[in-house]
Fold this sequence. Notes:
Layout: H1 6-26, E1 46-62, E2 68-73, E3 80-81, E4 86-90, H2 93-124, H3 134-167, E5 169-171, E6 176-181, E7 188-189, E8 198-213, E9 226-230, E10 238-245, E11 250-251, E12 266-275, E13 287-293
Antiparallel strand pairs: 1-8, 1-13, 2-4, 2-7, 3-6, 4-5, 6-8, 8-12, 9-10, 9-13, 10-12, 11-12
Helix pairs in contact: 2-3
Amino acid sequence: MLLKKPSVWAAAFGLLLIAVLVYRSTAKPQQPAPPLPLPQKTFAHGIGASGIVEARQKNTAVGVPASGLVSKVWVNVWDRVEAGAALIELDDRELRAQLLGAQAQEQLKRAQLDRARDQYARLRAVDDPRAISAQDLKDRQLDVAVAEADLATARASVAGTEKLIDRLTVRAPVAGTILQVNVRAGEYVNVGATAAPILLGNIDDVWVRADIDEQLAPRVVPGKPAVGYLKGDAAHPIPMDFVRIEPYVIPKQSLTGASTERVDTRVLQVIYQFHNPSDRRIYAGQQMDLFIENTP
Length: 296
């Protein structure tokens, strides 16, 4: 008789529904397979790290010696340049106007020196010692010395202005490839701008700056090789040679985007090097996963 009551069936259905809801809320969802294969552990004992690709001897951010208007940009991205090649030319019209004045002053001082020398030579040519006093002769000699000093000063002013004009042509400090051009002709550039006008570097043999958590830093063994993988490319391991350890632990600046990643971590930076393959070009600024060989 009890089973025929609707309230009993309603209670049983409610209990069943609660059980299903509890099961579904506590059940662990099945983890989806990774969209790309993960890098395999290369060494029996190793340390994992993330790194950033950069030019050999680090990327060179080329600045300007003075704020001013850009009159010409001599290079484009991907251009290969030698050390000393012109990169940027700043407006030098004001300095060239000053140079004209300095050159005119040099000509004036040269003429004054010629006149002083001529007067001194004519007085020295007088045979009669009663015609000119020794003091006058000495004064003319001093006039020549003063004129020579004035001419040297004028020449130094011309040379200094020419140096300042040449300084407005920014040249490559090292040989390499132009990675970025952040300025155009007609734009105004400031000294110490956040974005360097030109980014230059040698990308034939590139470096990887690996960040190793400070807790793992004591386990790093200098000289050990490493193997790197580009993000999303676990099929092409890249052997790397040890370059050096940066002997200063810094706050982590390069983030991989993982949700578990701490931004307050301090890291030891280890530099590795490899030759940039021609068939699979690797670019400065790419992220890599590294496995560094370590002793047990």
